[in-house]
Amino acid sequence: MAEIDTQNQITQTGENFHTGQLLKNPYEIHTFRRAYQKVLDSMEYGSYDTGKGYNNLKKKKKDTSDIQPNYLYIKFGPESDAQENRLRKHRKIICLDYPFEYENGELYHKENPLGEGERLSYYTSIPIDAKYPKNIPHTILQEMYLPEKDETLNDTKTSGKKTLRGLVDDEVDFMNHAIEQAYVDTDNEDLLPEPPLDKNGCETCFLGINLRAKWRPSGNVKIFDDNMGTSTYTVKECQTSYIYDYSSCDNNLKSSVETGKLIMPEQNLCPQKIETKTCKNVTKTRNGSYVPINGANILIRDTWTLDRAIADAQGNFKHKEVRAKVRYVIKWDRFEFSIRDHSGLTQAEDKGPKLYKQPWNLKINGGRMKYRGQIFQAAMHFYYHNIGGLTRPPTNGFWKTQIKIAAVETSQGPSSTKMQVGHGTFGIVPHIKIKKYGDASELIYGTTIHELAHAAHWRIDPISWDDLVEQGYIYNGGSNNPGPAGASARRLMESWATAVEIYLTNMRYRRLGPNSYKYQGKNLQDQKIEGGYKSKFYTTTFFDMYDHFNQRDEHGINVPIDRVSGVTWPNMEKSLIGTTRWEECREKNVAISGQSYKIRELFNNW
């Protein structure tokens, strides 16, 4: 049974577009001049006709001298985090971490793995007179001529007048022929818009490309969340039934008697089996629903040019006007963070279709695209949305680095966060690895929040956080029995991250769905004190200090007793500063909140 989507809605599960053929640049200056010259030659030899409009031009086309570079294709090779961040901060420069000759970044990086100590390079195209950070190592790979960026053609009215193939009536007709020729010469015909039909249905009478006709790429992006309420969907259900027609049986018997010939079994069509298929659309209800991806970074790519648009709270996005067919791309990053691919080394992105004058209405419902989208949503929340007074994870900027989160495609092993004191130590290695592929949406979201809470803890007090990691994990080799000091440190850092995980995941799901939502059903309030490894270290202590619910009243004596309530998140954060032991954190919270007996009672559950 297949889900029925409305027109122009594309449901994707994260499959990638793979191609081994490298793209050629139709706008490269020498390539475009050759195409331009071919159009001139076609006019001179009579292959193209000229109309009155062209014959009236004061300046006739004679050679390629009018074609001068107006764009640059550049490769940047930052040598440090600081240089990479300066490049990212340049709002008018949109980069890919692979050459424009490739349509698939993951394929490029698979074929060209980084060597030890190497950093990613970044590729972009910009106006020839644009300002860019020249102190970052860079190479101008190509000079280009983009007709739609030519000031002499900008005054052209976008009347929508079509260009007849083989007829040059004015400068725009000439340039339309030159653009098409450049695309044909570089094997980019699939990026040319489909030619419009004439009144007689001719499919080749007009050119597809038209500098007079602009359009604005746009669309909407949503993702299916397994835990976001319920939703209805429509499927087509079919039933097949059979009836048997015996009307020909008497005729067969009569024919046999009259002719004296026996009708063989393979000739005997008695009775005839008649199949009937009946289909109808059926509306069903399921757990989960589609929600907008607020803040999604949507690129459009016309071979060697890029544009970016950010989806709004409803998932809608809109780009600047273009003339050609474009490829839509989701780049899973924002200035503060980058979702990386399975390897953790390169930027995660997913390709959309090539479209002309069509919106991209995307509904993500599975696979790696859904996995990356859910991690992205959690990072967007922690960095850009309301977090109730908590400290955000490390931010990007001078002497800082963009947080890199690897979307590791496995559910085996723990997710992890690795932070270090000092700047310039991370390079391309991801700070965070999420290993929840295929899990429920709320678990992927909550786990991402949990790991980012560790990063925020590091930002609050990096020296104490490093000590917690050493005591809690490094000195004991990550043992499940880390000793008293190790258990104290591990319980402190993991309990804080667990509390933030519950708090922010609840905030997100209650904002978009039912207000009755509780993380994993009960906010982990039914977690037993002696319930194994998770209960020993990943406690709900900090969330218990915030909420107004004593889980022992509902779940019995095997769960913690919690008579604390109303401690604010900023005050609990203060208790982390300079703190490396569980008992030390307890006494700081007593001093801050004043609920001495109740807080000691809560902490002493473990």
Can you describe this structure?
This protein has 606 residues and is of the alpha/beta class. The protein has helices at residues 29-44, 52-55, 81-89, 105-111, 171-185, 247-259, 367-384, 441-460, 462-474, 483-512, 533-537, 541-546, 551-555, 569-574, 582-593, 596-603; strands spanning 9-12, 49-50, 71-76, 122-127, 138-144, 167-168, 218-245, 272-292, 297-302, 305-310, 316-318, 326-331, 337-340, 349-355, 360-364, 403-407, 416-417, 432-434. The strands form five sheets. Strands 1, 7, 8, 11 and 15 form a five-stranded mixed sheet that branches. A four-stranded antiparallel sheet has the order 10-9-12-14, with no helix packed on it.
SSE topology sketch:
Layout: E1 9-12, H1 29-44, E2 49-50, H2 52-55, E3 71-76, H3 81-89, H4 105-111, E4 122-127, E5 138-144, E6 167-168, H5 171-185, E7 218-245, H6 247-259, E8 272-292, E9 297-302, E10 305-310, E11 316-318, E12 326-331, E13 337-340, E14 349-355, E15 360-364, H7 367-384, E16 403-407, E17 416-417, E18 432-434, H8 441-460, H9 462-474, H10 483-512, H11 533-537, H12 541-546, H13 551-555, H14 569-574, H15 582-593, H16 596-603
Parallel strand pairs: 1-15, 2-6, 7-15, 13-16, 16-18
Antiparallel strand pairs: 3-4, 3-5, 7-8, 7-11, 9-10, 9-12, 12-14, 17-18
Helix pairs in contact: 1-5, 7-8, 8-9, 8-10, 9-10, 15-16
- How much helicity do the residues have? 25-40%
How many E-type strands? 18
Low-pLDDT parts are: 1-10, 14-19, 421-426
- Counting DSSP H or I runs of 4 or more residues, the number of helices is 16
Proportion in β-strands: 15-25%
The shape is globular
Oligomer: single chain
Distance, first to last CA? 51 Å
Q: Largest sheet at a glance?
A: 5 strands, mixed
Mean pLDDT: 88
Kindly name the structural category: alpha/beta
Using the CA coordinates, give the radius of gyration. Answer: 32 Å
